[in-house]
């Protein structure tokens, strides 16, 4: 019986070993504080002091949607209506899903906010959406997305439109900062395999 149990343990170990390889967690973190003025809406790099992305260089681009252009001052971008496009490199890991957390401080209205696979254009599932009202028109939003399978690269698009809260009159939208974090999580099946392996070991101890 003991010999059979040990054979079972070895078989489970062979199954769990490749699964454990997928436990490598791929994480990225990047912020844009707009301390430096964007030049004509060209690509702007994430802040180097917040950048933790070993898979590539995160980039951002600002597009005017109002026809009136946008401005910059005091470390913020402002304008009647514009969108921010962020390109976040990542590394696919076999069989995990990924969660992406978007945080931003702004004044105005969010007209759309979504995340897609930059290669296929597939949209990802929003998991959580929180807005904190700081007063004086300032808000901080946190939005979490989940997507599976894990893509190589994500595209984040956020639209901002200026609207005065009380009167509803158009004003400039203001973007103070934006941060994006990603984390790759092992799929549930991998965790089940690991749990089964642990159970076989426990059974072997009890019957010994």
Brief description of this entry?
The protein is an alpha+beta fold and 208 residues long. It has helices at 2-21, 188-207, and strands at residues 27-32, 44-45, 59-64, 71-73, 76-79, 81-89, 96-107, 109-117, 125-135, 138-147, 153-161, 173-186. The longest helix has 20 residues, at 2-21.
The residue ranges in which pLDDT falls below 50 over 5 or more consecutive positions are: 5-24, 190-208
Strand count: 12
Principal-axis shape:
globular
Secondary-structure element order, N to C? HEEEEEEEEEEEEH
Average pLDDT taken over every residue: 79
What percent strand? over 45%
Count of separate DSSP helical elements? 2
Distance between the termini: 9 Å
Radius of gyration: 23 Å
Q: Sheet bearing the most strands, described?
A: 7 strands, antiparallel
Helix coverage percent: 10-25%
Question: Strand pairing plus helix content: what structural class?
Answer: alpha+beta
Model description:
There is one protein chain. By secondary structure, the protein is α+β, with helices and mostly antiparallel strands. Helix content is 19%, strand content 46%. α1 (2-21) runs antiparallel to α2 (188-207). The relative contact order is 0.24.
Could you list some keywords that capture this structure?
five-stranded antiparallel beta sheet, alpha+beta, 12 strands, disordered C terminus, about 210 residues, seven-stranded antiparallel beta sheet, single chain
Present the secondary structure layout.
Blueprint: H1 2-21, E1 27-32, E2 44-45, E3 59-64, E4 71-73, E5 76-79, E6 81-89, E7 96-107, E8 109-117, E9 125-135, E10 138-147, E11 153-161, E12 173-186, H2 188-207
Antiparallel strand pairs: 1-12, 2-3, 3-6, 4-5, 5-12, 6-11, 7-10, 7-12, 8-11, 9-10
């Amino acid at each position: 019986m003991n010999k059979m149990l040990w054979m079972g343990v070895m078989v489970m170990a062979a199954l769990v070993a490749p699964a454990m390889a997928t436990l490598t967690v791929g994480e990225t973190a990047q912020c844009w504080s707009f301390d430096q003025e964007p030049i004509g809406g060209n690509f702007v790099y994430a802040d180097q002091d917040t950048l933790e992305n070993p898979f590539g260089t995160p980039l951002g681009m600002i597009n005017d949607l109002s026809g009136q252009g946008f401005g910059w001052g005091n470390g913020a971008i402002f304008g009647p209506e514009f969108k921010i496009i962020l390109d976040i490199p990542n590394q696919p890991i076999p069989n995990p899903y990924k969660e992406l957390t978007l945080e931003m401080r702004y004044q105005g209205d969010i007209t759309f906010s979504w995340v897609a696979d930059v290669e296929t254009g597939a949209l990802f599932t929003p998991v959580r959406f929180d807005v904190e009202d700081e007063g004086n028109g300032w808000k901080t939003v946190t939005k979490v997305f989940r997507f599976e399978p894990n893509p190589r690269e994500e595209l984040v698009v956020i639209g901002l439109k200026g609207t005065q809260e009380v009167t509803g009159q158009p004003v400039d939208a203001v973007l103070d900062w934006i941060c994006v974090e990603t984390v790759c999580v092992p799929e549930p099946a991998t965790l089940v395999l690991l749990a089964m392996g642990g159970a076989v070991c426990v059974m072997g101890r009890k019957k010994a």
